[in-house]
Amino acid sequence: MNRKTLVLAAAMGLLAPVLAACGDTESGSGDGDAIVVGTTDRFTASEEEGLAPLDPAWAYDVGTWNILRQTVQTLMVQPRGEGEPVPDAAKSCGFTDAGNERYSCTLRDGLKFSNGDPITAQDVKYSIDRAISLEGDSGVFALLSTIDTVETQGDSEVIFHLKAADATFPYKLSTPVAGIVNKDDYAQNKLREGFDVEGSGPYTMEAKVEDGALVRATFTKNPSYKGALQVNNDKVEMVAYDSADAMGDALKDGEIDVMTRSMSPEQIQQLSNATDGEIELVETPGLEIRYLAFNTKAESVKDKAVRQAMAQVINRDELVGKVYGSQAEPLFSLVPAGVAGHSNAFFNKYGDPNVAQARELLEDADVETPVQLTLHYTTDHYGPATKTEFEQLSKQLNDSGLFQTDIQGTTWDKFRPAGQKGKYDVYGMGWFPDFPDADAFIAPFLDEDNFLNSPYSNTEIRKDLIPASRRQADRLNASKSFTRIQDIVADEVPVLPLWQGKQYLAARDDITGTAYALNSSSTLQLWELGRGVSG
């Protein structure tokens, strides 16, 4: 029997997924062998990328966060089927003032770290203060930038005093940087190196490391966990593969039960077209975006006319069609479709690709053509189609006659720090939002201490528009500020959005809970998986 499952967006890309084929919504029993999950994410501890990849005060990519979300508990958590975050380590949380500047949480009774140590409000304060003070080079601490002070009252109440109103603060408390850690395992003034993780989340983790890389993580159900999540299995193993093809072969051969990011477009198409077999494909709404980032101080692109001309030339429809097909959609703003506050700012400004208008932009700015550029991309982080994507981008720019470009691929452990250090004039990045709100697509790129360490700075965005958006408890009312921000970005082009992707998971047909194993922010929710009966 074919158990292929397609999960389609019900509305706006943020609603709970609904199965369109055989039932897959029943919880697993938690019995049986470990469920084995494959991934092509790389987990390395190196001098270049950082020796503490799994310290919550450092980790800031979708792969490492997907490990921490299983192991390190937060006060709040994203609920099943999206929606606003709900208490997890806390039993209640909320703003206690009309101005959204004082946020209080009361902890659940009997919380313990996995080693049995009790968790108190002081541990929460220690963890948050530590993440802020360490100022990890990854920039993840900026998520907590609106905190002024953290206060405790007794052992169970934590009060956050904010520098300014921040309606998104509950979401930020659901991210791993706000994870609760034990001071005996995590020093106050030093990052924890290596791959050991301790917390109070739904699982404990044992790491298998080879040549400085995590190759297998074994997650075992934490009997001490108290929180909002229902854990439907006793053990999950995550195995890292060097390629999507190797991961796909492992699924076909029964070596793994589930494969996640990143599958190739060809694999997804084959699974989607399959009419029989024991593997099902799950498609869920996604908020992943891809974009070009610019070092706006670099000689080749410091004139915004160059960046504007690239925005005028690049044909997103052609790019998506040739590389990703129906698995992605053109994106004309940092804020993707389906998120309140989205606008098609780049299309509104540039319209359809037009070489003549791009040439006029460069001529008016006295920019000599062809502009010579190297487009940098990572070879092993965003999936096997990335090289093809950059070949297409380079061809489009070169065919205009206005640019002379080549491409250069680098492994993620070298690519990421090089981008942060300003060594690339133009480079390709992806983004999986910290939480499903427009702020998560704006502040990490444009605020102080931003994720890219970009030299670009706009005073109106930082001092007026971002703070104004955070004062709006009703996020629809923040749309005016977000629209203005997107218009500024389309004009000044510090980043150039390219496409918005769907997300996929493939599983053997005896695995249950796959409809909820990924949320729209690409959070891998291993606790949803169970083992049922093969059809």
TrEMBL record:
Domain of life: Bacteria
Signal peptide: 1-20
Taxonomic classification: Bacteria, Bacillati, Actinomycetota, Actinomycetes, Kitasatosporales
Isomerase in keyword set: no
Keyword terms: Signal, Transport
Protein name: ABC transporter substrate-binding protein
Chief location bin: other
Organism: Streptomyces lusitanus
Keyword Translocase assigned: no
Gene3D superfamilies: Dipeptide-binding Protein, Domain 1, Dipeptide-binding Protein, Domain 3, Periplasmic binding protein-like II
Family according to the record: Belongs to the bacterial solute-binding protein 5 family.
Ranges of residues in domain Solute-binding protein family: 84-450
